[in-house]
Design brief:
Elements: H1 5-16, E1 21-24, E2 36-38, E3 44-46, E4 54-55, H2 58-64, E5 70-72, E6 77-81, E7 84-88, H3 92-99, H4 106-116, H5 127-135, H6 137-152, H7 162-165, E8 182-186, H8 190-198, E9 204-207, H9 212-215, H10 230-233, E10 264-266
Parallel strand pairs: 1-9, 6-10
Antiparallel strand pairs: 2-3, 4-8, 5-8, 6-7
Helix pairs in contact: 5-6
Bound molecules: flavin-adenine dinucleotide (FAD).
The site of flavin-adenine dinucleotide (FAD) has 25 residues, from helix 1.
């Protein structure tokens, strides 16, 4: 149930050992949230938000390479604060420009942060405290406060510390978004890669536009692998989980090769 990353990989693995798989999805396409398609202008769009593939596991790369070639890259993201583009995640260059400093070494950065961070916080109780403890109020207000609200539809003070803890802090000038050893985009897109996995495999039948509730009593199956929302699976009997609150708008710009210099620019203010 669900033809996203989890569903497609499991279908392929089971199909490869001779199991018959019915892969269903309520959407009209496979690839789940990683779905991409070419728009009328030939631009590859990640419909449900940008997906950066990365892994530290050679066996994951090897497995997926059966279904795709890659465009390797180091992802770079900038944050636009007060009309200026800053390195993000926060690194030494971000701090130097934002605070008008001239920090040169890792020790300089640590000493400077020690002066701005909130030392009264012991174990952070929420995502706001997590950032305040690490980099202090000014950075929190400029780079994290509204951004977190936009992403999660709620204050950082109401979120678990792990939400902001996953964003690294760099003491050097490394501007790479991620540290993983292999960072690459599937050359023809994610959808093509997943098609390579599950389409044309005689052990896998794909049923799209098929909601779990409508299908489950009509089909006989020995085992179910459910990859949809867990709260939905239990009929919301324990309530609804909070999910990220992103809304995507796609716009086309003509007469220019690139609309912006970097593939992702965050606008962490109220705009
Ligand atoms: C905005 C955004 C950005 C992300 N960026 C990255 C990134 O850069 N790198 C990265 O590694 N990961 C990223 N992720 C995470 C990544 O999308 C997920 O880890 C991955 O999609 C999980 O795959 P999945 O198969 O578990 O779920 P999904 O891809 O969500 O697939 C589940 C499928 O189940 C189907 N389904 C659900 N309910 C039903 C139902 N009742 N009946 C039938 N079908 C149903 C859905 O339609 C969906 O196709 C991002 C996620 C989001 C939302």
């Amino acid at each position: 149930m669900g033809a996203g990353v989890g569903g497609c990989v499991l279908a392929e693995r089971l199909g490869s050992i001779g199991k018959k798989v019915l892969l269903i999805d309520k959407r009209d396409h496979i690839a789940g949230n990683a779905f991409d398609y070419h728009d009328d202008h030939g631009v590859l769009i990640h419909k449900y938000g940008p997906h950066y593939f990365r892994t530290n596991f050679p066996e994951v790369r090897e497995y997926l390479s059966q279904f795709t070639d890659w465009i390797e890259q180091r992802y770079v993201i900038k944050s636009c604060v007060g009309g200026e583009l800053y390195d993000f995640p926060i690194n030494r260059r971000t701090l130097n420009r934002f605070f008008g400093q001239d920090l040169k070494t890792e020790e300089d950065v640590k000493a400077f942060l020690d002066g701005v961070r909130d030392k009264s916080i012991g174990i952070p109780k929420n995502a706001e405290e997590q950032v305040l403890k690490l980099v202090g109020r000014k950075i929190y207000d400029a780079f994290f406060k509204e951004y977190t609200k936009k992403q999660w539809g709620t204050d950082a003070a109401d979120l678990d510390p792990t939400v902001t803890a996953r964003i690294p802090l760099r003491y050097n000038e490394d501007e790479a978004y991620l540290n993983d050893s292999f960072q690459a985009m599937p050359k023809e897109g994610y959808t093509r890669m997943f098609e390579g996995m599950v389409k044309g495999n005689r052990n896998i039948t794909i049923l799209l536009n098929a909601g779990y509730a409508q299908v489950k009593d009509r089909v006989k199956f020995k085992k179910l692998i459910y990859t949809g929302p867990i709260d939905e699976y239990f009929g919301y009997k324990h309530g609804r989980l909070k999910y990220r609150s992103l809304r995507f708008e796609h716009r086309s710009f003509s007469n220019q090769e690139y609309h912006q210099k970097y593939s992702q620019i965050n606008y962490p203010g109220k705009e």
